[in-house]
């Protein structure tokens, strides 16, 4: 089965937001050509409202759900910690249902299909670009299983507009000074994947340095943290002190990006999305020895502890 043959009944599954958005974009683009479709997730996100397709809570028994629905194909995202996609890939293989999985990043491509010493590979793995394909091949995945697909959500973002004005957003977030700038910080959950050994640092190390560094800028901006769903928010909050505000669960992150004066992170897909929305992006590294999976991809400016303030002053 090829992507041009996605007809009949389709079943879509996702968990992490990086996979959720492209899967939803694809499902919405196919909804009129499919006989029937069903979308399930083990998480709820505010951005579901951006899409004209319903999302259901994932049932506890993936195989039973597929037996009842009888899809012609399965299409999933991939996640760091959730196993919901893998449960459906495993069930689809047992039921001889053709399966696709979309990988929304360049890191840990094969590891996303492994849990508890077992591996659950779909029939086809869709990757963002040729670089991701070569990384997957280097990671031991058969080239015949890989398809360079791009990220359909990026095309969606090019035409996206917020439903709130900046003043309305400030009011909703309880920010009382409309003249203050917004610095959005979106750290990857690197500690979940042994970030110190894998990349040379993790979000805990970086946040400690970042919070200390930005104090030099005074209080002319709001420093907003957008935590990843898989992150230890309490730990990051304890590091941020009074300088950092945690965005509440369910916040429309696209809207924050749209009105942000700068977005700071490491390797997150959110930084690429911020660039598509035409916001300045800074990728903060603790030193120049960081192993950068986005090297050579022209994603934002790289800043180190000794250059961050200068770069932020130039933007703010």
Question: Care to describe what's here?
Answer:
There is one protein chain. This protein is α/β, with parallel strands linked by helices. It has 2 domains: 3-156, 3-Layer(aba) Sandwich (Rossmann fold), CATH 3.40.50.2000; 163-315, Rossmann fold, CATH 3.40.50. Helix content is 33%, strand content 18%. The chain is built from 12 helices and 15 strands. The protein has helices spanning 17-30, 62-69, 84-94, 130-138, 152-158, 166-173, 195-198, 203-214, 233-240, 253-259, 269-276, 308-315, and strands at 9-14, 36-41, 56-57, 73-76, 98-102, 114-115, 118-119, 124-127, 146-148, 181-186, 221-225, 245-246, 262-265, 281-284, 301-303. α3 links the parallel β4 and β5. The relative contact order is 0.11. The model has no long low-confidence stretch (mean pLDDT 91).
Write a short abstract of this structure.
With 316 residues, the protein is of the alpha/beta class.
**SS-derived structural category:** alpha/beta
Radius of gyration: 20 Å
Please trace the helix and strand order, writing H or E for each element.
EHEEHEHEEEEHEHHEHHEHEHEHEEH
Mean pLDDT: 91
Coarse morphology: globular
Low-pLDDT stretches: none
Q: Which CATH architecture of the largest domain is right?
A: 3-Layer(aba) Sandwich
Write the layout of secondary structure elements.
Elements: E1 9-14, H1 17-30, E2 36-41, E3 56-57, H2 62-69, E4 73-76, H3 84-94, E5 98-102, E6 114-115, E7 118-119, E8 124-127, H4 130-138, E9 146-148, H5 152-158, H6 166-173, E10 181-186, H7 195-198, H8 203-214, E11 221-225, H9 233-240, E12 245-246, H10 253-259, E13 262-265, H11 269-276, E14 281-284, E15 301-303, H12 308-315
Parallel strand pairs: 1-2, 1-4, 2-3, 4-5, 5-8, 8-9, 10-11, 10-13, 11-12, 13-14, 14-15
Antiparallel strand pairs: 6-7
Helix pairs in contact: 1-5, 8-9
């Amino acid at each position: 089965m090829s992507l041009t043959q996605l007809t009949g009944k389709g079943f879509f599954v996702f968990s992490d937001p990086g996979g959720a958005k492209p899967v939803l974009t694809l499902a919405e683009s196919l909804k009129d050509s499919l006989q029937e479709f069903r979308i399930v997730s083990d998480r709820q996100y505010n951005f579901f409202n951006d899409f004209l397709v319903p999302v259901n809570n994932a049932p506890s028994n993936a195989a039973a759900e597929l037996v009842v629905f009888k899809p012609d194909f399965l299409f999933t995202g991939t996640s760091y910690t959730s196993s919901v996609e893998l449960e459906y890939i495993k069930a689809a293989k047992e039921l001889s249902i053709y399966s696709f999985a979309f990988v929304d990043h360049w890191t840990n491509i094969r590891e996303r299909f492994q849990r508890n010493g077992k591996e659950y590979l779909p029939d086809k793995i869709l990757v963002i670009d040729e670089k991701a394909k070569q990384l997957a091949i280097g990671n031991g995945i058969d080239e015949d299983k890989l398809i360079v697909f791009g990220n359909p959500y990026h095309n969606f973002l090019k035409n996206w507009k917020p439903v709130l004005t900046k003043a309305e957003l400030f009011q909703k977030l309880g920010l009382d000074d409309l003249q203050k700038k917004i610095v959005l910080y979106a750290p990857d959950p690197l500690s979940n994947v042994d970030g110190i050994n894998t990349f040379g640092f993790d979000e805990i190390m970086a946040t400690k340095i970042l919070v200390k560094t930005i104090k030099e800028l005074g209080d002319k901006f709001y420093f907003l943290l957008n935590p990843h769903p898989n992150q230890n928010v309490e730990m990051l909050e304890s590091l941020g002190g009074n300088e950092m505000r945690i965005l509440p669960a369910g916040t429309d992150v696209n809207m924050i990006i749209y009105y942000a004066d700068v977005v700071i992170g490491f390797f997150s897909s959110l930084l690429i999305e911020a660039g598509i929305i035409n916001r300045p992006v800074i990728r903060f590294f603790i030193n120049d020895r960081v192993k950068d999976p986005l090297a050579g991809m022209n994603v934002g400016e790289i800043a180190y502890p000794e250059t961050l303030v200068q770069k932020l002053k130039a933007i703010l």
